[in-house]
Write the structure tokens for this entry.
Amino acid sequence: MSDVIISCKDIVKTFNSGEAEVKALQGITLDVYEHELLMLVGPSGCGKTTFVSALTALLSFDSGSCKILGKEITTMSDEEKTSFRGENIGFVFQSFNLLPSLTALENIALPLTIAGVKRAKALAQAREMLKAVELEEKADTKPNNLSGGQQQRVAIARALVHAPKIVICDEPTSSLDHKSGQVVMELLKKMTKEKGATMIVVTHDSRVYKYADRMAHMEDGKIIKVEVL
């Protein structure tokens, strides 16, 4: 078994909705292993996105602990959390989240320029990533002139350009047709393997379950089963 790269224990998160309390996470314990592709699956509203937001320190939680790469996120300051995410975590979203005013190449280079990499070097690395996702000819194209599948491939390149150790994908295929979704998952699995990254995919798209190494089933804020595929 590979080393544990994320270790979450008894994570609890409650939201207040008017006078009611909604228990979004009810004591989740889960280990994620180095180099694996773990899928978090379950019905909408079961807490999948809340859980990955908690384990990446985007969302504080009420109690429990979570260590990522050996560091306890609950003891980090907000500034430390932001820096840690920038160095170690890449994100791929359902809605792509590309900046419409930037070209594909500039969107991919963005994490590097934010991190202080000089523009020429950032664009050169971004061009290599465009080549890897087979969209080199779209370097100067803006997002609204790309198909959904092409936009998601640009988003994958952006998520991986800074060589993160962990890649979080939130519903990466749900807005794509079947063929584009398969292409995106093949690409994600291939590229994270080549980069030696660990990937967590939040999904309720059963068409892509076959790409998982392990699958954690969630229901009502709890993990009810973890299976090896």
Summary: The chain is about 35% helix and 30% strand.
